[in-house]
Amino acid sequence: MTIATPATTLDVDDPGDDTIARFNYQFSIAAIYLLKMALDPSYAKSIICENFEDLIVQKDDDSFEAIQVKTRDRKHPAFKLTDDAVEKSLTRFAKLEARFPGKFLQYKFLTNHELWEGKENGQNLAWILQEIEKKPTIKRLRSTSPKRIAIENIARRAEVSPETVVLTLSKTICITRREDVTSIDRAVQNAVGECRQCEDLPYKTVVKLSEDIVAAAHRASCKGRLAFEAKLYTSDLPYEDVFTEVALRGKTLSLPIINELIDRYLAPQDEPVEMFDYSSARGLPKGLEKMFQKMAEGEVEARRIDVMADSVRSLEVLKIRWVMKFGAVKAKEMYNDLLSRILHDCVEAQIEAEKLGKPYGSEQYRLTRLRLENRLSTEKAKLYGCKIDHLMGAAGILTENCKNWWSDKFDLQEIKP
């Protein structure tokens, strides 16, 4: 019998890891906005972390967007306007509008959850915002009007006029991402893949780059100082002025910062492939962990691995249709026959690709697709109505089932939850 110790017993009552996951979600959202600048340099001048708001987007014309990030376990009810977290966010927006009149173009309430829209009343934030858009005033509204009550309540909390609240809410939008906080890592990786300069990066590199960008957002959110600043102690200027300058610079993420991070990974890497720890990589799609590990080991581009994952899902949908149309037994026969045909092409593609030297995963992907396109053109009638995406999905399933490899075989690691 195993003796219970802190090393063998999981504490299910300590919310610490959940709190850290929520902070990580906010830093990851900052990373996604930072990557928007890399994708489109005209999007913003900088992203400022934890200064008045969770995030502030500074535009080239020195106008701003304020972003509040609110998280909630997906099993809990959707956000209502009367929830304290929502009221606090809108109150902060109203205070910003009063302190910096005309500077903010937009306020964003961003959540991993969703908004309650059960009835058109004072708990429905989306409805209140729509009503303000239709008529941006509370004049002539009865004292019992949900719109009036909501606006006056925020005005009291923010100690501003109802007109300021109306103006604030007329510029407020809600972004409901509808995702678990732990899935945000994958969203950052997708944002990296959308950047033109990162399109051909191997999946392992995308994971590392994503983690570095999130780490940069984390550092910028922690009081702002990047490192020891001699200027704080040597300048003739007042200490408070210098400290403000240094702290704000540390809180600010700009295009040169994101470009520098990306450039590190565009340069040739001396780090050996074996040093990548899959067990610490978050964001792998559930059910395809082995496929992602194996294709990443062969240094297949992240975009191609994403396409392969989508192709697997397409074949899974087709398989369900087969079951509904032909019955489970026949559908299983068709499915197994398809996999056996595709396995031959996968093996031959790997044999041909590995002759070019390691890593050869990218070339293997290209050859696999060419072979499957040729098979589709020569024996379409024997492939049960499959398209090329379904055939590539079969290659992905064979990879997940350890029939197909994209490098020399290695010990697959169990992904930590």
From TrEMBL:
<protein>
    <submittedName>
        <fullName>DUF4297 domain-containing protein</fullName>
    </submittedName>
</protein>
<dbReference type="InterPro" id="IPR025382">
    <property type="entry name" value="Cap4-like_endonuclease_dom"/>
</dbReference>
<dbReference type="Pfam" id="PF14130">
    <property type="entry name" value="Cap4_nuclease"/>
</dbReference>
<feature type="domain" description="CD-NTase associated protein 4-like DNA endonuclease">
    <location>
        <begin position="14"/>
        <end position="146"/>
    </location>
</feature>
